[in-house]
Design brief:
There is one protein chain. The chain is of the alpha/beta class. It has one domain: LigB-like (Protocatechuate 4,5-dioxygenase, Chain B, 3-Layer(aba) Sandwich), CATH 3.40.830. Helix content is 34%, strand content 19%. The strands form 2 sheets. The protein has an 8-stranded mixed sheet, sandwiched between helices. Helix 1 crosses helix 5, helix 4 packs across helix 6 and helix 6 packs parallel to helix 10. It is globular, with a radius of gyration of 17 Å. The model has no long low-confidence stretch (mean pLDDT 97).
Amino acid sequence: MTAMARITSSVYTSHVPAIGVAMDLGKTEEPYWRPLFAGYEPSRRWMAENTPDVVFLVYNDHANAFSLDLIPTFAIGCAEHFQPADEGWGPRPVPVVKGHPELASHIAQSVIQDDFDLTIANKMDVDHGLTVPLSLMFGQPQQWPCAVIPFAVNVVQYPVPSGRRCLALGRAIRKAVESFDQPLKVQIWGTGGMSHQLQGARAGLINKDFDNAFLDRLIADPEAASQIPHIDYVREAGSEGIELVMWLIARGAMDDVPPKLVHRFYHVPASNTAVGHLILENP
């Protein structure tokens, strides 16, 4: 019998651009940044022992691959390589992201046949939304230790997908991965969030109570988390708190049994943003 691919675990993390800058400029040991990076040290040790073959990385583009001229709700990267984007001050000094076209195309085929409309991206630059999580989990290697499938979600321009849609999409992705006939170990990462607002009278908003309640529900009751309406994210977690719906895609891709909590971390502030982080393993 042919061994099939499987999702072994999920990783959830904020993707604050200033975190990448701190790493790139060697500031991780400065007093402001040290507590944040200390929270990811257990994660890096775990990752060194559990490096996957492929990371399916859910993130949002920040007007680098896409603009208001073209706004896909869900876009899957099916290319062999993805260049770090120039976000206005040059690309981050990180390795080129190596894709997995075979698995990505298989997932696209399966998920679209399950009635989710995906945009196929055969060329796409990837910004801090994707590279900062890779740096947090893998450090600063000469090349990333696994293939990465970028999956961009529109959480910038309304209308954005509902939490229910995102959770169901995660389940469709799990089905797709499990029907791929290569024995790949796959991790799915949900990135973005947590509470933050970057503009207006509430710029700098951080809501620790909402953030930690969301983490509780994400772990123990993802169905309840998926029912949170958009207005609650905006009211309670700030305008950019809506990025948390992307975590529901990763959670939906986990097995239908309680996961093992490997690590949980929460820290404020990081560049006026709350940072949340989880690692969950399938039993």
